[in-house]
């Protein structure tokens, strides 16, 4: 029998990120959005969106204890490193 785990990830970026994105960052955000849509289609994403102060975002994931291939927090970060670099300005 497997158990479900729910994780909330808060990603902090630079202030006012959505209104100050470069063209490259907009491209990366599009890729990030497609990645999240894939997680949603797999039933692994509960919700995601920007923080109220527009300096980052949050992701709420649903996974089970046997899901070792796709939705561990560390794998999510490794697959979405370009997004994390963009919002932090690195």
Structure, briefly:
The protein is of the alpha+beta class and 90 residues long. The protein is 37% helix and 27% strand.
Any chance you could write out the topology, listing elements then pairs?
Layout: E1 4-12, H1 23-41, E2 45-50, E3 56-64, H2 73-79, H3 81-87
Antiparallel strand pairs: 1-3, 2-3
Helix pairs in contact: 1-3
Walk me through the structure.
It is a single chain. The protein is an alpha+beta fold and 90 residues long. The chain has one domain: Dimeric alpha+beta barrel (Alpha-Beta Plaits, 2-Layer Sandwich), CATH 3.30.70. Helices cover 37% and strands 27% of the residues. A 3-stranded antiparallel beta sheet has the order 1-3-2. Helix 1 crosses helix 3. The protein starts with a strand and ends with a helix.
Distance, first to last CA: 42 Å
* Structural class determined from secondary elements: alpha+beta
CATH architecture: 2-Layer Sandwich
Record field, number of beta strands? 3
Poorly predicted ranges (pLDDT <50, ≥5 residues)?
Answer: none
Mean pLDDT: 77
CATH superfamily (homologous) name: Dimeric alpha+beta barrel
Topology-level CATH name: Alpha-Beta Plaits
Biggest sheet statistics: 3 strands, antiparallel
Gross morphology: globular
What is the quaternary state of this protein? single chain
Strand order of the largest sheet: 1-3-2
Count of helices? 3
Proportion of helical residues: 25-40%
What's the CATH C level?
Alpha Beta
- Strand fraction equals 25-35%
What string gives the helices and strands in order? Answer: EHEEHH
